Amino acid sequence: MRLLLDECLARNLKRDLVGHEVMTVVEAGYGGMKNGALLRAASGNFDVFITVDRNLPLQQNVCSFQLGIVMLKARGITYDDVSPLAPKVLETLKTIQPGQVVEIVS
Q1: What DSSP string describes 20-77?
Q2: What span, in angstroms and rounded, lies between the C-alpha atoms of 72 and 14?
Q3: 39 closest CA partner among 75, 8, 12, 63
Q4: Distance between CA 91 and CA 77 in Å, rounded?
Q5: Rg of the Cα atoms in the chain
Q6: How far apart are CA 65 and CA 85, in angstroms?
Q7: pLDDT tens-place string over residues 52-106
Q8: How many domains does the chain divide into?
Q9: What residues pair up with 88 in beta bridges, in sequence order?
């Protein structure tokens, strides 16, 4: 599965998402894009967008994009904050569908 990590997430999280092709927004060439443009660019090129942006579903019609969205809710955005959520992310990836938003809470 092709995964895209939001700019605000620690890029070290990539190493915990084994078995998947993982790129950061910057690595994919989408650095600095606003959410709508970013999701349009990623749609069809990635299967899942992983973010900590809790407002994303309120700002965008996420069901119109051809990728799933995983929202991580941890006490912060550092690697130490979000890495404990990696096993839940891996489990979620087994069933997430395009246009679906799944929240993973620490």
Answers
A1: SEEEETTTTT-TT--HHHHHHHHBTTBSEEEE--TTHHHHS-GGGSSSEEEEEE-S-S
A2: 14
A3: 63
A4: 20
A5: 12
A6: 24
A7: 887 766 566 676 788 999 999 999 889 999 999 999 999 999 999 998 999 999 8
A8: 1
A9: none
Amino acid residing at 60: Q
**Domain assignment of residue 6, given as a range:** 2-105
CA distance 15 to 101: 23
Report the C-alpha gap between 97 and 52 in whole angstroms: 19
Specify the residue for token string 């891996």.
Answer: 90
Q: Whole-angstrom Cα distance, residue 47 to residue 82?
A: 20
Burial class of residue 90 in the structure, from the number of CB atoms within 10 Å of its CB (0-12 exposed, 13-18 middle, 19+ buried):
middle
Write the pLDDT tens digit of every residue in 5-54.
999 898 999 999 999 999 999 999 999 888 888 888 999 899 999 998 87
